[in-house]
Description:
alpha/beta
Amino acid sequence: MSTNLFDLSGKTAIITGCNTGLGQGMAVGLAEAGCNIVAVNRSEPSETQRRVEASGQGFLAVHADLTSTAPIDDILYQTEQRFGGADILINNAGLIRRADALDFTEQDWDDVINVNLKSLFFLSQAFGRACVDKQRRGKIINIASLLSFQGGIRVPSYTASKSGVLGLTRLMANEWASLGLNVNAIAPGYMATNNTQALRDDPQRSREILGRIPTGRWGTPEDLVGAAVFLASRASDYVNGHTLAVDGGWLGR
Ligand code: NAP
């Protein structure tokens, strides 16, 4: 066994929504720690593939729209065929819809909940079953949000989904810790990706947000890598059901 607690050599991670943004940053970061990557996307993850392969690790792209749970069996099947299974699952795919709560539509509710919460749970369940069947240790990392802790405004389905992610992370940890599965979450702060483009394009909102972040800057995909490698590695074997904020200090204010 490597003496490096954070070494991921020989491991395989399934990461959803990693063609861009935070998912891409974590895929590249895990690959640099030695991990093969199964990239689950509805868009082509060509840039992620190039960057993962440049670090010398294996890469498999699986096409899936996680609005529905239908692709889940195929994700596990293709991972098994190519890498003999996975050790790590990062549930990162997510979307946000913004509208006043008085006007919010059922479509915007269902679309967000289906990807951010329902598929996250059923993919975790499929991954958990595969680990238990093979008596293999597993690490699940869910991507939560500051809106797992706070209410937010104009994003009702997003707040519901991310608050649900925090609760489900605890539930899965409670049931599965004794089976050799670590389930934890990362709550990113305000990060410069597509998800926050509308906020950064609004000078007043952008100023208000920046004014509250103690580090005084938006986060980047690279800022999540340390937390992701920690929660994916044996360094976190006794960490269960925790949601780790990586937020430049936002929640401390
Ligand atoms: P992003 O650039 O918009 O990335 C979101 C990813 O999810 C993309 O790869 C996207 O694929 C994928 N996705 C969305 N709907 C999908 C679907 N139906 N099926 C499969 N994949 C789907 O935003 P990001 O900031 O990197 O977001 C990553 C995660 O971090 C999300 O869960 C988000 O809620 C969370 N988060 C972000 C922030 C932030 O400040 N940026 C803060 C807290 C939490 P496409 O490119 O094909 O749409």
